[in-house]
Design a protein that fits this description.
By secondary structure, the protein is mainly beta. It has one domain: outer membrane lipoprotein receptor (LolB), chain A (Clam). Helices cover 11% and strands 59% of the residues. The chain contains two helices and 15 strands. A 15-stranded mixed beta sheet has the order 8-7-6-5-4-3-2-1-15-14-13-12-11-10-9. The protein is globular.
């Protein structure tokens, strides 16, 4: 009986989330990032889309000593399909490191990754995505149990997220009724709170590793056009 209840609840949540409208054409979200309560820096995500194609840009600004490490920018561009976002290009550029790149070829079912050395071509994973855009996938395809094969130019890993209920959260950007999706492994736990009143955009992200270290990202400002 209990398992049936949770199954019906998950289905209802997914259906309600899928019915939500796509996010506005231009969205900017600023987050504060902290480690065990200590502020590390500020991250800004900018999303632009026209219903067919999208562009997401992430910029990182460190605080204190971290500001001396330079800048970091990640970019994902791609198309919007019925089942969510399909990246075509991803790049991760950081001061003092090689730029990581990924090119997705959905027709040939191949992916080209490059970080150090020559580009390498590999088969496209079943649910290929990149490490930036996947968190915005829910805003276009709805909150649901989903598996992502995440690629970042250096390698790939499989991430399984499941709906774990709803709750009202308070972050500096405001109060939101949110769908909570969770990924659990033997190394860490990742939780995303998707704001229902904001097209299921991520308002809070929490990663807790097996040693109890907490990396938290909370929205301080959400603007849309």
């Amino acid at each position: 009986m209990r398992s049936t209840f949770w199954l019906l609840t998950s289905v209802a949540l997914a259906a309600a989330a899928s019915a939500s409208a796509a996010p506005p054409a231009r969205v900017e979200i600023t987050y504060e990032v902290s480690r065990n309560g200590m502020l590390l820096g500020e991250v800004t995500h900018r999303l632009e889309h026209d219903g067919r194609a999208y562009l997401i840009t992430e910029t990182w600004k460190g605080r204190g000593l971290l500001a001396l490490r330079g800048s970091a920018t990640r970019v994902s561009r791609g198309v919007i399909a019925a089942d969510g976002l399909r990246p075509l290009e991803f790049s991760d550029e950081r001061t003092g490191r090689n730029t990581a790149r990924v090119r997705f070829d959905w027709d040939a079912r191949t992916v080209v990754m490059q970080y150090r050395g020559e580009p390498r071509t590999e088969p496209l994973p079943e649910r290929a995505h990149d490490r930036l855009a996947f968190a915005f996938d829910f805003a276009f395809a709805g909150a649901r149990d989903v598996t992502f094969d995440l690629l970042d130019g250096r390698g790939q890993s499989r991430h399984r997220y499941t709906i774990d209920g709803r709750e009202r959260i308070t972050v500096p950007a405001g109060q939101f009724d949110a769908v909570r999706v969770v990924r659990r492994t033997d190394k860490d736990r990742t939780e995303l709170w998707l704001a229902e009143g904001r097209s299921l955009l991520p308002a809070r992200v929490l990663v807790v590793d097996k040693d109890g270290v907490r990396i938290e990202q909370v929205a301080t400002r959400i603007s849309a056009q």
